[in-house]
Amino acid sequence: MAPDELNVLKDGMRMLVIEPAGLLGTVQRLKSEFQFDLFLDVTAVDWLGKSPRFELVYHFYSTAHRVRVRLKTRVPEDDPTVDSLVSFYGSARFMERECHDMYGIVFRGNDDLRAILLYEGFVGHPLRKDYPKDQEQPIVPYRDLAAEADVGSKAA
Amino acid sequence: MRARVIRIQSAPSAAFEYISTKKDELVGWARKFSIFPYPFVTACCAMEFMAVSSTPYDTDRFGAALPRFSPRQSDLLMVVGTVTHKQAPVLLKVYEQMCEPKWVMAFGVCATSGGFYRNYGTVQGIDKIIPVDIYVPGCPPRPETVIDGIMKLQDKIAGSRHPIITKDF
User: Which of A119, A133, A136, A145 to mutate to test the interface with B (most CBs of B within 10 A)?
Assistant: First the structure.
């Protein structure tokens, strides 16, 4: 990453597109050299049918320079793994959990990828494009209306 | 059905000495004007719940103003807003804690049918989990709609059986 790269605006924001292997090095430089001290978010985009399938999008903010930067990297469907940023930003622990919930991205180095918005026992990752859009996974079993009507008619 | 007779001792001998009615009608009349709601408020419909509870619309006129924040003391479970699958066990527990007789109002389309949340996270209507007595449509419902719902529920209470001691009485 050359410092000039950070001066190019794309969609109104400074943006870097990198390989997953270079993530930790880039983030370390962003934090120490360019003072991006606030980790805003990590999320993903599912480009179903393209390769690599998942695009991870990171946002950082520098409270000293009042500047944002966007970082993008792509991981393949068969191994959606990237390095975790918990060693740089503690808040990454929770944002990576959410991203793991919704897209099934595995963050190497984050030892707590339990469900944060979903619940225990939920199968699949609902924001993936191939998750059936109306598939529900109820915790409380739905009422058996036929059985209730049967009981009601006996009582009456 | 046995008729019930009330003698008013102190009344003069004129018109209003005896009332005769049916037990179910008497109990229903008492119950329909003392609905203590438990607001199970999860989403933006809460704003309309506040509007309908407060002075301009005033559900107190229907005896349904005083929210009880313990389900054990309440008669009407008002489910106000979207219920997610993650919340569903809580809703069921609250419902099961309520004493009989109890009624349930689905307040707004999300509680009624899931509304436009046709997705992985939302219960497609609370009647999938607990029985519902009255559905109030709207996103959110107008206060007039809620009042209409309360009045319809009152009609339902007034017209139903109210077993007190055994199922026959």
Answer: A136
pLDDT tens digits along A39-82: 999 999 999 999 899 999 999 999 998 999 999 999 999 999 99
> Contact, B148 vs B137, CB < 8 A?
no
What secondary structure, in 3-state letters, does A50-103 show?
CCCCEEEEEEEEECCCCEEEEEEEEECCCCCEEECCCCCCCCHHHHHHHHHHHH
The packing angle between helices B23-32 and B143-158, to 10°, is 160
Structure tokens at B103: 């009624």
Enclosing H/E stretch for A38: strand A38-46
User: Which amino acid type is present at position A72?
Assistant: K
* Nearest neighbour of A138 by CB, restricted to B88, B127, B130: B88
Which domains does chain B carry? 36-157 (3.40.50.12280)
Torsion of CA A103, A105, A111, A116, to 10 degrees: -10
Which CATH fold would you assign to the domain A3-155? Beta Polymerase; domain 2 (3.30.460)
Contact assignment for B118 to A139 by CB distance below 8 Å: no
Q: Which residue has the tokens 């559905």?
A: B135
pLDDT digits (tens, 9 = 90+) for A86-145: 999 999 999 999 999 999 999 999 988 999 999 988 999 999 999 998 888 888 888 887
